[in-house]
Amino acid sequence: MKEKILQYVEKNARINIAELAAMVGASEAEVMNALEELEQDHIICGYHAMINWDKAGLDKVTALIEVRVTPQRGMGFDKVAQHIYNYPEVKSVYLISGGFDFMVIVEGKTLKEAATFVSDKLSTIESVLSTKSNFILKKYKDYGTIMAGGTKDERIKMSL
After folding, report:
1. For domain 53-142, which CATH number applies: 3.55.40.10, 3.30.70.920, 3.90.950.10, 3.40.190.10?
2. Which residue from 5, 54, 117, 155 lies 20 to 30 Å from 66 (Cα-Cα)?
3. How far apart are CA 77 and CA 68, in angstroms?
């Protein structure tokens, strides 16, 4: 039951409890108890709204920053990650494979603000060896949600 609850809540965090109970085949009380337990166990870590900032008319720049670091002795990458994710500009930090160690997602009001974060804060951390910044130009789909208006299907319908 918990797995089904997680699948539905991940897609729609505002789902009605009665509707969710019907979908997973449980009582509302069972679903409420399961949700509470999932939250206490930090399996559900939060609830977030997907906002299309372009349509809201508010300027926001998102940068994907690849970071190469020297891990700290006895702590690996965890201490460096903690240092990075404590900045308010940082929205996400991921340990990744490949040529870099972390993917850091940063938001700012302007390109300059995001770039200043990299040059003044991120690159000055002792363990940081190098960074590579990529800026999101347009979001088409974000966390499973289509952000941009769909394009019209121009193909000719055929029947046999």
Report:
1. 3.30.70.920
2. 54
3. 11
148-55-11-47 Cα dihedral, nearest 10 degrees: 150
User: pTM of the full predicted structure?
Assistant: 0.77
pLDDT, tens digit only, all 160 positions of the chain = 899 999 889 888 899 999 999 999 999 999 999 999 999 999 999 888 877 777 788 888 999 999 999 987 887 899 999 999 999 999 999 999 999 999 999 999 999 999 999 999 999 998 999 999 999 998 888 888 888 765 555 566 666 6
